[in-house]
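Per your request, structure below.
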């Protein structure tokens, strides 16, 4: 089987979790005997075409995307035109069986390529604009993106979501039957979470942020409203005053960064923590190892990869009881802890309790390491390949 996968990011071009997802999925599918071609963007010194770990990667050179929302929409449209042009050339050279695209950013090119090649079009929905903005999609550019996502889901021959929550959400928001959507969770490879740093370097890293007697709290992700970091800061303020020996680190960037820093100053937290901005994988994996716990306080969360990574790294995880996080962290508290979504007071009470109980934290961490093994990439790839085969078989039968 030969697959053309379309994504706006693929390593070394990384904007978020999507790029890591498509890389691991593609590489595992290659190991399972699927011939994978990835159509994506590049630029700079990146080659137009290369093989990476068995995956054939084809890139269109694109300028950096603009921060202005209207300019970004125009940039996406131009990128799709370039992707379609290169994809059509690839279609003449290779006989693809199926086209698989990820999220709205490449939907226009993917739709036209699939229809032009006469092949099934499979879409993976990682998140929605409707969910990110709690339903407020009446104004541009949110209205534009929401319309693009709706058309994508309705036009695709099949849809994948990463959680049961997202299946129900996408079906409701985009007006399709839940039965048309297949749930295949994201995967994780604990081996890739091992930091390159030696133990002495990890100790030195921790010492940058916390004294030996301190408890270090980690938050990771895009600094945007729906990730709920403002709730975590609100919860941390009284806990740090009462316990005294609590420090925090925030890793990530986003449009809410300046406001979160102002909030930290208002709450008297400036001397208690650090905002690191964007960090690379090795730094992130090291932070998981040196932190005592990780908070994932999302208001909207399709899956919860940060929670899985933290648990796999031996870092106790506290997550909001919402969205896909419910499918990652069990309700019984065995592998991690939940708090009622958007309830900073409840989060603070849990923080104060677990930060003072080393024994309970150790038990939960041990359970979590075993729990995350259920989310292996081999199973993700197996289920994805099975869906490929069913779509190709149905298309062959109908023609």
């Amino acid at each position: 089987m030969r697959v053309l996968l379309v994504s706006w990011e693929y390593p070394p071009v990384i904007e978020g979790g999507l790029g890591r997802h498509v890389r691991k999925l593609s590489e595992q599918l290659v190991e399972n005997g699927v011939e994978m071609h990835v159509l994506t963007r590049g630029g700079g010194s990146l080659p137009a075409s290369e093989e990476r770990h068995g995956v054939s990667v084809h890139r269109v050179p694109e300028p950096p995307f603009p921060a202005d929302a209207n300019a970004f929409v125009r940039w996406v449209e131009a990128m799709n035109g370039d992707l379609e042009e290169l994809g059509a050339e690839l279609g003449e050279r290779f006989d693809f069986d199926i086209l698989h695209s990820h999220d709205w950013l490449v939907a226009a090119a993917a739709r036209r390529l699939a229809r032009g090649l006469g092949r099934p079009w499979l879409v993976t929905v990682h998140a929605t604009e409707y969910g990110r903005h709690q339903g407020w999609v009446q104004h541009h550019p949110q209205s534009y993106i929401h319309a693009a996502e709706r058309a994508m889901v309705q036009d695709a021959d099949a849809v994948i979501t990463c959680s049961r929550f997202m299946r129900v959400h996408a079906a409701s928001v985009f007006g399709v039957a839940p039965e048309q959507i297949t749930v295949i969770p994201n995967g994780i490879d604990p081996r890739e979470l091992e930091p390159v740093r030696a133990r002495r370097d990890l100790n030195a890293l921790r010492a940058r942020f916390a004294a030996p007697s301190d408890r270090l709290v980690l938050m990771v992700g895009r600094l945007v409203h729906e990730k709920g970091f403002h709730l975590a800061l609100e919860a941390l303020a009284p806990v740090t005053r009462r316990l005294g020996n609590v420090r925090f680190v925030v890793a990530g960037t986003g449009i809410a960064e300046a406001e979160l820093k102002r909030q930290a100053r208002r709450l008297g937290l400036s001397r208690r923590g650090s905002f690191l901005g964007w960090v690379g994988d090795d730094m992130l994996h090291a932070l998981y190892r040196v932190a005592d716990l990780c908070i994932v306080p999302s208001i909207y969360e399709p899956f919860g990869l940060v929670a899985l990574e933290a648990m796999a790294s031996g870092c106790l995880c506290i997550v909001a009881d919402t969205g896909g996080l419910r499918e990652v962290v069990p309700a019984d508290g065995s592998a991690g802890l939940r708090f009622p979504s958007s309830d900073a007071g409840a989060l603070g009470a849990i923080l104060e309790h677990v930060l003072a109980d080393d024994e309970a934290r150790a038990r939960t961490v041990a359970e979590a390491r075993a729990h995350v093994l259920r989310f292996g990439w081999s199973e993700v790839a197996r289920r994805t390949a099975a869906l490929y085969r069913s779509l190709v078989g149905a298309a062959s039968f109908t023609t």
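The chain has a mean pLDDT of 94.

Regards,
D.
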